[in-house]
Amino acid sequence: MEVITVTADADVFTCNAYLVLGDRTVLVDAGTMTGVEDVVAEHTDHLDAVVLTHQHSDHVGELDAVVDRFEPDVYAYADHPLRTHELEDGDDVVMGDESFEVVYTPGHADDHVSLVSGRSLFSGDVVVYNDGAYDDGSFGRTDMPGQSRERLISSLQTLLDRLPETVESMYAGHGDVFETERGGDTVRDVVERALGRAEERKPKYPEE
């Protein structure tokens, strides 16, 4: 399975939008980068589906443009005018060459889901490897209306419970892709570190 960050050259605030190539070509989140559909088209002339981890504006801003260009199925937990398939906790979704379990992970957003296979984790914003707060395991912010630190903590615990030991790659909504290296941190280590920091109940950012 090949994963390409199609928003890598963005000069605006956006999430990481990931193009997953393989038997089933899928875009995870759409981002806010104008022209993201053109970048997708550089790698494929067909897009089977878009899967949304959640519907914050930085994740869905260019969804209309992607759908207009490729007419893919759209998978989302919460209702959306372009949604064609509702995601529920425990569902299986094929992306690339792997089958991913949908894990409902609210806290950063009420409709947040993570996607877990035997080798890969698409974590959205519930957990990232590096951001402006921490550089080796961070959690999604919970200081905005509708967000909840307690629900996010519970979601990270759930994610750990359902995360296979074999997962080696984490594709988060922001920051760098994390790859397990021999003798180094694992994806589980990163999630556990993020959970521990979230459980301290301290503001993620000093201005919170």
UniProtKB/TrEMBL annotation:
Its cofactor is Zn(2+). One of its GO terms (molecular function) is metal ion binding. InterPro entries: MBL_Glyoxalase_II, Metallo-B-lactamas, RibonucZ/Hydroxyglut_hydro. This is MBL fold metallo-hydrolase. Keywords: Hydrolase, Metal-binding, Zinc. Residues 14-174 form the Metallo-beta-lactamase domain. SUPFAM superfamilies: Metallo-hydrolase/oxidoreductase. It comes from Haloferax marinum.
